[in-house]
């Protein structure tokens, strides 16, 4: 079922995809930090307000994924920030998240050695986002 | 990001600081699938990061983004040598054999490569 991008339904489907991934489960063993995704507003793309995705991830499991204000995501242990259209590129496989971080297209805040240690888990998490069928606000 | 990774590693791990303070070398890293890179100018306890590949590099590492990240995941074993026999190490060695990881200037700079790998490593 297609869901609106960064909606509560999207968060639920994303969480299910993560928890159904055996690759993620094994690659994220030992992970115990929260991750926040800040989706910056782009009014010209019909995305007028910034949103935050708060992910409570623990030892290979997504315990909770919630969409809320950007300020909530900014409180997480790791925060990845990018404009709406950049996240759309990631979710549609136009932009690889690892490359995006190396290029500074996705801004990362948090302990770099820790996130680098879990590169495979973060790549699989990105794969999980691409499996959620999404209705994009700039296409509707 | 690579500069940030080194800063975090050196700041939190005394054994990496020792390597960092001893290293004087210019190392280029070219990420082939984004066609961007940096030159890391190690100056015995100081690091200057230049965009792009600068002149007078001792070593140049060319690989895809994923492989560059995997280099940071190489474990460090006995005598400070990178471990190439575990899963990550075998993956890196395979990229080298397949030509997907190229290291120019390796002859005469093996010790530098090992020191850079130790500084980068988040696993060892």
Topology (elements, then pairings):
The complex is a heterodimer of chains A (140) and B (124).
Chain A: E1 3-4, H1 8-19, H2 22-27, E2 34-40, E3 51-58, E4 61-68, H3 70-73, E5 78-83, H4 84-91, H5 97-103, E6 107-109, H6 112-117, H7 119-130, E7 134-135
Parallel strand pairs in A: 1-7, 2-5
Antiparallel strand pairs in A: 2-3, 3-4, 5-6
Chain B: H1 2-12, H2 14-22, E1 24-31, E2 36-43, E3 47-51, E4 59-63, H3 65-72, H4 87-98, E5 101-104, H5 110-120
In short:
Chain A contains 7 helices and 7 strands.
Strand content of chain B: 15-25%
Q: Roughly how many Å apart are the termini of chain B? A: 19 Å
Distance between the termini of chain A: 16 Å
Helix content of chain B: 40-55%
**Biggest pleated sheet of chain B:** 5 strands, mixed
Radius of gyration from the alpha-carbon trace of chain B, in angstroms = 13 Å
**Class by helix and strand content of chain B?**
alpha+beta
Number of helices of chain A: 7
Using brief descriptors, characterize the structure shown.
heterodimer, A: 140 residues, alpha/beta, five-stranded mixed sheet, two-stranded parallel ribbon, 7 helices, globular, B: 124 residues, Nonspecific Lipid-transfer Protein, Chain A
């Amino acid at each position: 079922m297609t869901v609106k991008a960064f909606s509560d339904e999207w968060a639920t489907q994303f969480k299910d995809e993560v928890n159904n991934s055996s690759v993620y489960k094994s690659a994220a063993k030992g992970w115990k930090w929260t991750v926040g995704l800040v989706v910056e507003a782009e009014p010209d793309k019909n995305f007028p307000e910034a949103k935050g995705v708060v992910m409570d991830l623990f030892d290979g499991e997504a315990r909770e994924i919630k969409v809320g204000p950007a300020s909530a995501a900014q409180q997480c242990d790791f925060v990845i920030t990018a404009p709406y259209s950049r996240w759309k590129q990631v979710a549609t496989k136009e932009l690889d998240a690892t490359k995006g971080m190396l290029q500074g297209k996705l801004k990362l805040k948090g302990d770099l050695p820790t996130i680098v240690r879990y590169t495979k888990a973060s790549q699989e998490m990105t794969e999980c986002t691409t499996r959620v069928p999404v209705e994009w606000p700039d296409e509707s | 990001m690579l500069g940030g990774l080194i800063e975090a590693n050196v700041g939190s791990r005394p054994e990496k600081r020792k390597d960092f303070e001893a290293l004087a070398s210019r190392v280029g890293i070219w990420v082939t699938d984004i066609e961007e890179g940096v030159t890391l100018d190690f100056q015995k306890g100081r690091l200057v990061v230049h965009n792009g590949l600068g002149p007078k590099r001792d070593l140049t590492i060319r690989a895809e983004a994923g492989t560059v990240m995997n280099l940071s995941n190489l474990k460090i074993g006995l005598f400070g040598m990178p471990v190439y026999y575990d899963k990550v190490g075998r993956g890196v060695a395979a990229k080298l054999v397949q030509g997907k990881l190229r290291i120019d200037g390796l002859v005469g700079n093996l010790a530098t490569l090992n020191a850079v790998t130790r500084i980068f490593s988040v696993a060892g």
